[in-house]
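Internal tracking record. Fields below are filled automatically when a chain is submitted to the structure queue. Please do not edit lines marked as system-generated. If the sequence contains nonstandard residues, flag them in the REMARKS field before resubmitting.
Queue: standard
Priority: normal
Entity type: single polypeptide chain
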Amino acid sequence: MKKIFSFASIVCMFAMLASCNEDPTYYQVPDVSGSMNLNLTCSQERIQLDKSTSDATAVTFNWDAVKSPLSANDSVAYFLRFYDPASKTEHISDTIPMGSATTKSFTHNELNNIVSRWIHPDVPIEVTAQLLCYVFNEQKFVKPVVSEAKFWVTCFEKFPTYLYLRITDNATGSTKTERLEQVETGSGIYQYTAPLTPSTFVFGTSATDEYPVYAHDSGEKLKYVNDGDYEPFSTTASGDRTMIIDLNDDYSDCRIVEMIKLPRPGHIWIVGDGCSVGWNPNNSAGLFEMVGGLREPWIYAWTGEFHSAKDGSEGMFKIGLESDYNGQFFFAPSNGANPMTDLGIDGPRTQGGSDNKWQVPAEGEGVHTLKLILLADDLHLEFE
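SYSTEM-GENERATED OUTPUT FOLLOWS
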């Protein structure tokens, strides 16, 4: 009996070993998408993008509507993306949801925004449009269907290296040209600070050619003009002003502002027993940061602990602009002004006049952000 048992055990063991040598069986997802043909097509094989017609349609993609092979009640959604077949891993766009639509058009500007990141202006590049179709079934997974169409596109320069401000004085008729660089490469934002007189002006993209030019559209908006008539901007301002020109699609504007002149540009600090810095002047812990970005370089902020009057302290603060108490300050509009409600600012000036400071109320205790808006026609603080 023992021998029989041992023999049976050996047979079972060899059977198990034999089964271990067989390939494992995995669950197979049935491919039921064979009848789903998208047939993506492109309206043009070669596209020359033109900045002067940036809002016009550059290309249209069409594809066939498909139905779920499982149930008429299943929903179907399409997604479109683009890639450079020569460098697909690096040059690929975000996936754009199409919903249930079967056509999609792109303007010159929209397509340029996608492709210009992959190639220099005026250099043709082959691009692949890839359409993906997803079927949503509650019981079974349906393999996505893909269709592709290739085309060639030549992009335009999004942001010129330089803008050329051509400005004409209204009184004398004299014209001068100033070359402007981007504040930060790739930002599309340019800045010019100088004394202005009532004048008209436009922004050229060439030091010698009249066109293309950024001219006046409406309000503060810019209009890109490749040829023909255009309207210049005009200003009645006199004195030091700053022009901020933003060529980004979301803005495309030119604003003229008068920013407060600081004795040490960008050097602002808070001081007082109404904040965690105390009365130590020009403390690095109390320095403000410029938080307005390239579009609004007149907004500064400091975040820290604020204290109301208690234990012998007054709970007050003011804002220094130089290196010590002999320099200029921003003062409160009146001594003991509430920074939560009295938002006006006196200065910049030395404290030879009234040494007015803000006083933190009990409800202002805790961590807050103090913002300074340094515009001559809207100088104020914000307590958040």
